[in-house]
Amino acid sequence: MPPVINYDRNVESIPEPKIAWGAKVSKVFKERVLWIANDLGCPANSLMACMAWESGETFRPDIKNAAGSGATGLIQFMPKTALKMGTTVQALAAMTAEDQLNYVYKYFKPYKGRLRNLGDVYMAILWPAGVGQPDHYVLFDRDKTPTTFRQNAGLNVNHDDLVTRAECLVKINSKLAKGLQSGYLG
Asked: Nearest to residue 92, comparing CAs of 84, 100, 104?
């Protein structure tokens, strides 16, 4: 027998799904993230953890990179990236967080179907060549890529002069774990 479906049920009584960091953003922000994640085929929790990391847990559209790179916003859009997307970091900073999510979606859209886990989502932001790679994949090598290694040396957890995808994920995994805790999950 097929299950009995009660069509008289009030749909507003259906609880919203809870996601990492969902208690720290607006309902509209959360709904848009859930839509983006569903369309891209990526975990919403991963997207939220990456935005928490990149925005210093503020989810502010105007947050600037502390190192002075000019990167701004929810996923730290670089000025050149913003221009390629038809905007500027100044325009992105002036948006609401909810509106900036349109550009987050636009940024991730080329990776649709390839963002299978937290590592893939974060690699799309940090080092796109790392999307889909195994965790032992070397992103930055002190000898081969000294400038990018120096800029990302803080990620070199074991101090072997090689930054692997796994090392990059240590801090992002902790953001995901924190975002799933009471007070942040929502």
From this structure: 100
Which residues are CB-contacts of 21 (< 8 A; sequence separation ≥ 6)? 48, 49, 51, 52, 57, 59, 179, 184, 185, 186
Is 158 within a domain?
Answer: no
- Going by C-alpha positions, the residue among 129, 128, 130, 138 that lies closest to residue 158 is 138
The type of residue at 12 is E
**CA-CA-CA-CA torsion sign (97, 74, 60, 24):** positive
> How many whole angstroms separate alpha carbon 162 and alpha carbon 143?
9
The boundaries of the domain holding residue 33 are 18-126+170-179
Reported pTM: 0.89
Could you tell me how many helices (H) and strands (E) the chain has, helices first? 8, 2
Q: Are 98 and 60 in contact (CB under 8 A)?
A: no
Q: Distance of CA 36 to CAs 2, 15, 18, 89, 155, Å?
A: 32, 19, 15, 21, 28
Residue 141 located in a structural domain: no
Residue 166 tokens, joined: 């796994």
Number of domains in the chain: 1
Distance CA 151, CA 78 (A): 15
- Is 44 among the domain residues? yes
DSSP 18: P
Model confidence pLDDT, tens digit, residues 132-159: 999 999 999 999 999 888 888 889 999 9
